[in-house]
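Bit of a strange request maybe. I'm writing a small parser for structure token strings and I need a real example to test against, not something I typed by hand. Could someone generate the tokens for this chain?
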Amino acid sequence: MNKDKQVVWRESIRKYGKEIQSIVCMEECSELIQAVSKCLRGKPDATDNLAEEMADVTICLHMLQEMYGITDAQLEEWIARKTARQSKRMQADDPFLKGEDAK
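Reply from user aminoacidic:
Good idea to test on real output. This should exercise your parser:
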């Protein structure tokens, strides 16, 4: 991770506070939902808007991690659990699904 980015994000948290920054993160998630909807409806320039909103939410995820003391290890554990669960669901939907990820 680029240290300059982290410095800006931490300064933003310090300047505006955890509560305001948490609200901003909720709003950014809402904007991402709208951007996905526009892509699905085939709106012009929708993919560029989607990329912009994905960037905003990615920044927010880093800020939330900082504000609430979520460790990289916690995130990786949950990502592993959720990925394994999805793999099992897909295998259940398609008993012929093969591969290491399906186990």
